[in-house]
Design brief:
The chain is mainly beta. The chain is 5% helix and 34% strand.
């Protein structure tokens, strides 16, 4: 019974740690080169499903019947094998492994680790399989083994025994995750006291001597530069900076690391040495790495211990008996630039020749492409993590307190704030001669900022064991967006002052980034108008991300900029049109399209539409101009509350995403028009807080410029040709409509959901035409023409070349000198 070959079976979903996906061209299984992990699901909003292999499952459906007895499972899958050649390196498991608990189903395991260096391993692949069944012992006669045959059309149905697989190319080398600790020890017999700093950030271009006199990198007047993070090492202590690095994703091909240091040995009086070890040595017995005591500026140990997570150390021994002189203390307090970076090694199992061709910037080293230890390396290092190191004899700012609260000395020089949200900046100063130094403000604070009282906190880096803490709070006010305020502080201990610690308090505007999977066209993307049909329903999910908590709403009086060779700066996105737009859509400057409010005398430009003229024309719809447009425009927007996705609420540095779903069903009244539908991201303080710059997917609005096609209509589910004729054309003569759609074979068996139907040919107006004359020769009526062209009014004067939708007796070209020009749409 039902004698069929084994069929693909996707019901398992996941099997023994592997994926059993039903794929197609637009939703393939994915695997990153250099890794064995399979992924299913598009990256972005949808969660990914991962597995260690791809499982191809076939199941047997045949039954055996004898008299009144019918038995399932009289056959089973005999073998599963490839139906076409597979890429190099694909490994297969047993030809037909039994699925647990499924006696009539078997699977084939597919494993692959594509080679990043092999161009033939990158791209979209189609892996096809076939299977054969066999009789089980004791099965009835009459069943014959069958073999499945794969099929591979343009897009596979879910029941096809073929899988689409996309191999993605990794970017090398990825920057590592890094952490930094500062450990202090004043006595070899005591345990070091360690404090964690925030994770270092790429800062190779930072200035280490900001606020110091004659700083060469700060420039005249200061400002305009990025200042390095500050680290202070107290005198009479041995300071150890501990760097730890690990790969962001252990599956990256680059997984082995070594540290490199960049500094000037002449900047340090003595006792400064970096090293690179897998195990931390004793603080007092750590040997200096080779080359660091000489004039060379870069220290790289000759044989680096490569590990997947490595540790690097910088030692600075500031213990001196007798103590440093005042001049030496001032020299130590001057900033010294130190940079750390990570070099990653390439595993030894790659093809070196192909690797050098595919990734030439990472295949450096000696002539053989290997370091002194024989390991193939990519000498393209990570970015540099630079900081300013000072010896703290005079008062100094401390990087972090025992509670690991963030302090400005360890963060970027520019601090971002948002209007209406308070953010606190912790200041902590210490001195070797007093437990209560003062933290003083130099200059004034902006409106909305306040400096709190000073308090004493524990700090083990000075003899007293205490330091001073002070809190700067800033809540920007409306009107401060887009401004930057420079504030500076110093630590005073009744004898001397520390160098200035300065911040730029930057009040940001809302920079909105749009996520719009499936969005057909947007202004931010700079694409052409989108073609739509009346009656169809379009749904899109989208998200707006910003530092502010946004609401997403349909914009009234929207506007977008047109592309041209003269008015758009390089890198700014705009709307591209294939030809000149209709005059009624263009703004007064001629460089944009939108909906303007009418002035006291009407539109700003003669012949242009405006909101308030009593006619729903131009780019208007009800959502953008309810004063003119009373008909429902079919726009429905459902939004969710903003969610915090990055940062935390108390810091004021979070990123929020507002998700929404837009549903649009253009009504017949929009047929033949170009309309503009824009979604605006609005923060609590109003749209004025939003940055107007459009770059990539960043911009204040996300817009659709839609061309609602003339003579096109989306048929509702279950309709027939007769239903459409009665509803749209007010006629029972449905064969005329049938004649206008020659591709439809069965008029009484329409039409799937959302099928677009042509209502007739398109006619181009000729000189001398009027609605009455056209209605006469086309055997129609003026009323019928107006119904098919809702953008027309009875008193309109037709323009030569203007297009009209007609419902005539034939969809073919009408002959005769008075027929005009018609074409089947």
């Amino acid at each position: 019974l039902n004698a069929r070959p084994p069929l693909p079976d996707f019901s398992a979903g996941a099997l023994l740690g592997g994926l059993v996906p039903a794929t197609n061209r637009s939703r393939p299984a994915r695997i990153r080169c250099g890794t064995p992990t399979w992924r299913l699901g598009p990256p972005g909003l949808d969660p990914e499903v991962t597995g260690t292999s791809l499982q191809v499952v076939f199941s047997e459906q045949d039954q055996w019947s004898s008299g009144s007895l019918t038995c399932q499972g009289s056959q089973t899958v005999n073998w599963i094998e490839p139906a076409s050649s597979l890429p190099y390196g694909v490994r297969l498991g047993a030809r037909a492994a039994a699925v647990p608990g499924r006696p009539t189903a078997s699977y084939l395991t597919v494993q692959w680790k594509p080679m990043c260096e092999n161009p033939s391993h990158i791209g979209l692949f189609l892996l096809c399989f076939r299977a054969s069944d066999r009789l089980l012992p004791g099965a009835g006669a009459g069943l014959v083994p069958f073999t499945s045959l794969p099929s591979a059309p343009v897009d596979l149905p879910e029941a096809s025994p073929c899988e689409y697989v996309r191999v993605e190319k990794s970017q090398f080398p990825p920057d590592p995750d890094m952490t930094l600790q500062l450990c202090l020890q004043d006595d070899p017999a005591s345990s070091p006291v360690c404090t964690s700093y925030p994770d270092p950030v790429c800062s190779g271009d930072c200035c280490h001597c900001c606020s110091e006199p004659n700083c060469p990198c700060e420039g005249p007047g200061g400002g305009g530069v990025r200042c390095c993070a500050q680290i202070y090492a107290p005198l009479q202590q041995q300071a150890v900076m501990i760097f730890r690095a690990s790969t962001v994703d252990p599956s990256y091909v680059f997984s082995l690391m070594s540290f490199e240091y960049d500094f000037s040995p002449s900047d340090f009086l003595a006792g400064f040495r970096p090293t690179n070890r897998s195990d931390p040595p004793c603080l007092d017995s750590a040997p200096a790495c080779a080359g660091c005591d000489g004039p060379a500026a870069t220290c790289r140990p000759p044989v680096a211990p490569y590990t997947a997570s490595d540790v690097g150390y910088i030692y600075w021994d500031l213990r001196r008996s007798p103590t440093f002189t005042v001049d030496e203390q001032r020299s130590l307090a001057q900033a010294k630039r130190v940079c750390v970076r990570v070099v990653k090694a390439v595993p030894a199992d790659v093809d070196r020749g192909l690797w050098a061709s595919a990734y030439p910037s990472t295949a450096g080293g000696n002539a053989s492409g290997a370091d002194a230890g024989g390991t193939l390396r990519g000498f393209e290092p990570s970015c540099s993590y630079c900081f300013a190191l000072r010896g703290a004899g005079i008062p100094f700012f401390v990087g972090a307190d025992p509670l690991d609260q963030p302090y400005g000395t360890e963060t970027a020089d520019v601090l971002d704030f948002v209007v209406g949200t308070e953010r606190a900046v912790y200041l902590m100063g210490a001195s070797a001669i007093t437990p209560t130094p003062s933290i003083l403000l130099e200059g004034s604070l902006p409106g909305g900022a306040a400096l709190g009282n000073q308090s004493q906190v524990r700090y083990p880096g000075v003899p007293s064991g205490f330091a001073t803490q002070r809190l700067l709070r800033f809540r920007p006010q409306r009107g401060q967006e887009g401004t930057t305020h420079r504030v500076c502080f110093t630590v005073f201990d009744r004898v001397d002052k520390s160098p200035f610690l300065c911040y730029s308090l930057n009040v940001v505007r809302a920079e909105v980034t749009w996520q719009s999977p499936g969005w057909p066209v947007d202004v931010v993307g700079g694409l052409l108008p989108w073609l739509v049909a009346a009656g169809c329903t379009y749904r899109f999910k989208l998200g707006a991300t910003s530092q502010y908590q946004l609401s997403v709403e349909v914009q009234a009086l929207p506007r977008v900029q047109l592309c041209s060779d003269t008015n758009i700066p390089s890198g700014i996105e705009c709307l591209k049109l294939p030809g000149p737009p209709p005059l009624k859509l263009v703004g007064p400057s001629g460089q944009d399209i939108g909906v303007d409010a009418c002035g006291p005398a009407g539109p700003a430009v003669e012949g242009r539409a405006c909101c308030g003229n009593g006619r729903c024309d131009g780019a208007e719809i009800r959502s953008s101009c309810p004063a003119d447009c009373s008909e429902d425009d079919g726009v429905v927007l459902v939004t969710q509350a903003p969610m915090l996705v990055v940062g935390n609420l108390s810091s004021g540095r979070g990123q929020y995403v507002t998700q929404a779903e837009l549903t649009w069903a253009p009504p017949r009244g929009l047929t033949g028009r170009h309309v503009l539908l824009c979604l605006a991201a609005v923060p609590p303080g109003g749209a004025g807080l939003v940055s107007q710059l459009r770059i990539a997917r960043q911009g204040p609005t996300l817009c659709l410029f839609a061309d609602v096609q003339r003579c096109q209509y989306c048929v509702p589910f279950g309709a027939s040709m007769q239903d459409v004729g009665l509803h749209l054309l007010r006629t029972s003569n449905w064969p005329l409509l049938y004649n206008a759609n020659p591709t439809i074979q069965r008029p009484n068996f329409l039409l799937g959901d959302a099928q677009v139907l042509s209502l007739g040919p398109i006619y181009s107006v000729r000189p001398g035409d009027s609605l009455l004359s056209i209605a006469g020769w086309s055997r129609s009526t003026v009323k019928s023409i107006l119904a098919l062209n809702p953008d027309l009014n009875a008193g309109d004067i037709l323009e030569t070349g203007q297009q009209l939708c007609l419902f005539v007796c034939s969809a073919a070209t009408t002959e005769g000198s008075d027929a005009g020009v018609m074409s089947s749409h």
